[in-house]
Amino acid sequence: MERTDTKLKEGSVGVVQVQTLKLKLPPEGFKLEKGGVLPEIEVAYERCGNITPDNRNVIFVCHALTGDSHVVGRYENDPIPTGWWEGMIGPGKGIDTSRFQVICANILGGCKGTTGPSSINPATGKPYGSQFPKFTIGDIVTVHRMLLKQLGIERVAILVGGSFGGMQVIEWTIRYPDEIDKAIIIASAASLNSQALAFDVIGRQAIVDDPNWHGGDYYDCDHQPTSGLANARKLAHITYLSQRLLEDKFGREKQQSWIEADPAFKKAIDRNFGTFFQIESYLKHQGDKFTNRFDANSYLHITLAMDEYDLAERYGGLDKAFAGIKAQVLIVSLSGDWLFTPEQSEELVTAMLGQKKAVSYCHLEAAAGHDAFLTHIHDLKRVIRAFTRDNADPENSYKPKNWELRHYQKVVELVPDGSRILDLGCGDGALLNILRQNHNCTGNGIEIDVEHIIDAIRNGCDVLMEDLDDGLSMIPDNSYDMVILSETLQTIRKPRKLLQQILRVAKEAVVSFPNFACWEVRKHLMLSGRMPKGKQIPFEWYNTPNIHLFTLKDFLYLCSEDHIKILDLIPLGRGFVEKTLLGLGLKNLGASRVIVRIARDS
Amino acid sequence: MERTDTKLKEGSVGVVQVQTLKLKLPPEGFKLEKGGVLPEIEVAYERCGNITPDNRNVIFVCHALTGDSHVVGRYENDPIPTGWWEGMIGPGKGIDTSRFQVICANILGGCKGTTGPSSINPATGKPYGSQFPKFTIGDIVTVHRMLLKQLGIERVAILVGGSFGGMQVIEWTIRYPDEIDKAIIIASAASLNSQALAFDVIGRQAIVDDPNWHGGDYYDCDHQPTSGLANARKLAHITYLSQRLLEDKFGREKQQSWIEADPAFKKAIDRNFGTFFQIESYLKHQGDKFTNRFDANSYLHITLAMDEYDLAERYGGLDKAFAGIKAQVLIVSLSGDWLFTPEQSEELVTAMLGQKKAVSYCHLEAAAGHDAFLTHIHDLKRVIRAFTRDNADPENSYKPKNWELRHYQKVVELVPDGSRILDLGCGDGALLNILRQNHNCTGNGIEIDVEHIIDAIRNGCDVLMEDLDDGLSMIPDNSYDMVILSETLQTIRKPRKLLQQILRVAKEAVVSFPNFACWEVRKHLMLSGRMPKGKQIPFEWYNTPNIHLFTLKDFLYLCSEDHIKILDLIPLGRGFVEKTLLGLGLKNLGASRVIVRIARDS
């Protein structure tokens, strides 16, 4: 079964190499969206995994802010693999190179092989420096797409990116809807929030304030703007990690090697108001490491492109932005991420749902923070593996089991064929798949359990992670024909509010629930003097998820209070007594479980 | 009644002036804790409100990182008051100058009148600059205490401070326990967390990297290290505000005046990779404003003193640190504060409770962030006003009302005189006060509602804000003799866990609860087929806080499961039927309410 997918032996992709391709540009050069022109563009890229003869199995990875084309694998002379997403990509991994060819390219304006401010300006024979034109995320996407076209790849099977890379995925999915099958957007957003902008503002200021920056023309100078760049990096690095991670990893521990250093070193620390905290030495290390591998001008340009990216502004609203997308989308947010917050991911989901697009959303527990998509990928890998599964392959298509068909029969009968449905608490998507496959329905499931979500995605469902106690806050008004809520209402903290929300997002709903007034319950409480337990309510009072017990009569009373119409009512009894009572028309006494179809009474 | 306290007409303190006092030092000067010596120290301070003849009504305010002595009032030549805590202090305000004299002094190392790096070094006749010695929060406190002694003030009625000021309050309360009646610690901590350290590390680096800093000896130079100081301030300023506040206040809005500026200005922005976002112009404004009023060396010294402050390290643990304090303490945290987090305040509370100290804790909703203690003080003012009330005044002492004495009689009978108790859900502290005044008890209440907390504090109780669903996480093991939980168990999300927690923090507990098996409930469900409602359970099923209904029998069963002893059991019935049933010994049927005294069965 599919569950074993994740147990496939994971392998390494072996040796990779950077390749460089010169884009075929028109004679006037590459016109950038902000008005500048580049006479020539080279792109550095890497590939691994075999490509199919039709070139249709390509996963293109959009790298993050300071990433590069070396996403996975070992360079010829390196003893070990050094790619930045090594854990994610390889045979049997989240992105499976035994099925896909993975391509990753350094972005425009970078400093790792693709044309950027440190590249030679053919007009002068010197590095561009201050002459390098400003560019946008749109330009970055255009360059990558030109690269793929020149490689003979007209269509991307899966586009994936985290953070700044996710912004590229969003833009590409919108601009070229017919060229992408699936898109994965991790820890990203439609634009940076105000706090993130603020940090970038300070980071760039640190660089331009560095006297060695020289307005950007420092390449021929003795000194480079390393202290400004290091300070910018240190600051950004804090935002990549959660407060909790820093506390757990460093706390207020001191750096022993600094404490034991020679007196001159310690005196210099003291003179410069340094400390011996590990967090200080760690940040220093991060800053130094970064200045060794990155160019200050590239950092200025790329962060500016990120800051200025604003999907809503560009397209006149997120709804309009997503109106034309065709890819099946997976959006992932991380719990500890305060740079690209889960709320910002959810904003993308809401906008896509408003356009009735095929979108799944998964909020992963990742206490480490934003960088967790690079460093803490256990669940992310499994979600991506489920999403990248080829459900068109008959081998993989989900077939409803007979007991599932029986179990859901009464509910399915109440759902008109072809409905767009929202199944609250969809589990592994069994009901959704019955409705999709046998009744031509579309729509989403909602789940809170990540294991169920992975199963449902693997089974081909578009599923959204949300806590029903939050009241469907991610779902736009009137975005479904019908909501299904099965055996869950009594577990909700605010059941009245949820019913209202259900009839906000759809005109109708099918709701099933246990009836606390059924014969068995009354008998139990009357005679034993203890809270009832049984097949429908199999919990002790102190650990039951059923926190709002109610009777059929209670439910009907609330419906009449809240102007909810009952369109159908199916009382279900178990055993002789209940069935006899139902036969006598005593629904509230005879039904241990009830299914109702309800609608707004407007 | 006391509620009207907050409606007293608030007034202004009128004109104030800075005064300077030269500390009387021994011939060898003031020895700093880190080894340095200052030959002389001047302290700038301000006073307002009348002092009583016994000098016993002084509130000393410890200012925050970059504050100064001008806490409230108008300077002679200013048209309006300009103090940094204007809203908090004045006649009828949170800190009431019609009752107290408020004193605030600029800290050692500052740049607003108290000796600091920009002061003249008497040995050289030039500013100290790089020669100014490093100091600690302990030194700051010592200087302030010397100031008060020279002013003839031997004892402080109330010591109050937020943030860095709160650290001074903590240190003072520990060092001089006999000289402080009450202490108020707002948005503070026993030490900075790792993330906060990280930001400070970068801020200081920005200053020492500024070529105009000159190792600290810039006072005679043409240029001052303003760009480094501005960048440090910008960064710190972000941490004073919550992400939400920045988003609401600035979002991604553009600064119209910059957009409309002259082409040269816009070109400079473009060349320096600036943006037109309001957040950038706001930060620039904050940076510029700060460099006009603050000295870079003072900033370096003071932030270092803050970073190095570590109560646990200094005293060998927080428990030891607080072992000797005698002041009644109020600790306040702010919900949107990510610099000094609520968890850090709670750590202080836990340590004090572990030492059985008199401490109240209030977590205020303050979405604005850390700075909210300066800017959003509506509730803070009321909490402080309640805490600063003079409960020794017979006018103010709380007298239990007759109906309260009757209502709590059965519970009170189960509590031995002189017990240290924890009353969960203590409301306005009525039961606590009965036990304190008539039965010589001590201890705390726990509440979640801020209005109740303010009432309870005003009534002289030490009350802690905590959500019982979080399971008493703030309370150390065995810190009370008895816990009281009245009519609340059925509203708790994990009642079994709460019972376990109750018997973790105390050996015994008195618990009262409604019995779902009482005659009225059974009759109701049996005959009407709807969920019971009545005096004990007056809610609809969909909005009831009673989410875990249970019977006396259920409760006794759980106790036996969990090795909980029943020491007393008092069944309470209402009306003829229940009382008759109880008379027949049918507790589970006859009791609509039950009081039990329980203990660990060990």
Name its key features.
homodimer, 602 residues, alpha/beta, Rossmann fold, Rna Polymerase Sigma Factor, Chain: A, 3 domains, eight-stranded mixed beta sheet, seven-stranded mixed beta sheet, 22 helices, 23 strands, 36% helix, elongated, disordered N terminus
Largest sheet of chain A: 8 strands, mixed
- SSE-based structural type of chain A: alpha/beta
CATH architecture of the largest domain in chain A: 3-Layer(aba) Sandwich
Shape of chain A: elongated
Number of helices of chain A: 22
Helix fraction of chain A, binned, reads 25-40%
Number of strands of chain A: 23
Which chains share the greatest interface?
A-B, 85 and 85 residues
| Intertermini distance of chain A | 47 Å
Classified by CATH, the class of the largest domain in chain A is: Alpha Beta
Strand order in the largest sheet of chain A: 2-5-10-6-13-14-15-16
Structural domains of chain A: how many:
3
Radius of gyration of chain A: 28 Å
State the CATH superfamily name of the largest domain in chain A. Alpha/Beta hydrolase fold, catalytic domain
Find the CATH topology of the largest domain in chain A.
Rossmann fold
Beta content of chain A:
15-25%
What do the pLDDT scores of chain A average to? Answer: 94
